[in-house]
Amino acid sequence: MGLIWFILIGLCAGWLAGRITKGSGFGLLGNMAVGVVGAVLGGFLFGLLGLKSTSLLGSLVTATVGAIALLALLRAVKR
Q: Comparing C-alpha atoms, which of 63, 54, 65, 53 is closest to residue 11?
C-alpha cells in the first residue's frame, strides 16, 4: 500500500511543480512522471539536510520540492 501512496503523491507533486514553474514543464503526463522521480530526489535531498516528513502533507512538500529541482535540472540540460 505504501508504494501506491508514493506514486500518488509523486503524481500530485509533478502536477504542482508544473503549475509552480509555469511553462518550463513537459506537459501534464511528463510533469507527473517527473513528480514520481522528483519524490525520490526530494526524499534524498531532505535526508541530506536531516529532515524527514512524517505526514501526508510533508511528503507532498518533499516530493514537490524534488520535482521542482528535477524540472530545473532538466531545463538546464535541455538548453
A: 63
Residues 21-45 pLDDT 10s: 876 667 888 888 888 998 999 999 9
Task: Yes or no: say if 21 and 71 are a contact pair by the CB < 8 Å rule.
Answer: yes
Residue 12 CA, distance from chain mean position: 8
| Domain parsing of the chain, residue ranges | 8-20+27-78
Binning pLDDT at 50, 70 and 90, where does residue 57 land? Answer: very high
Residues with Cβ within 8 Å of 25's Cβ and at least 6 positions away in sequence, in order, are 17, 18, 31, 34, 71
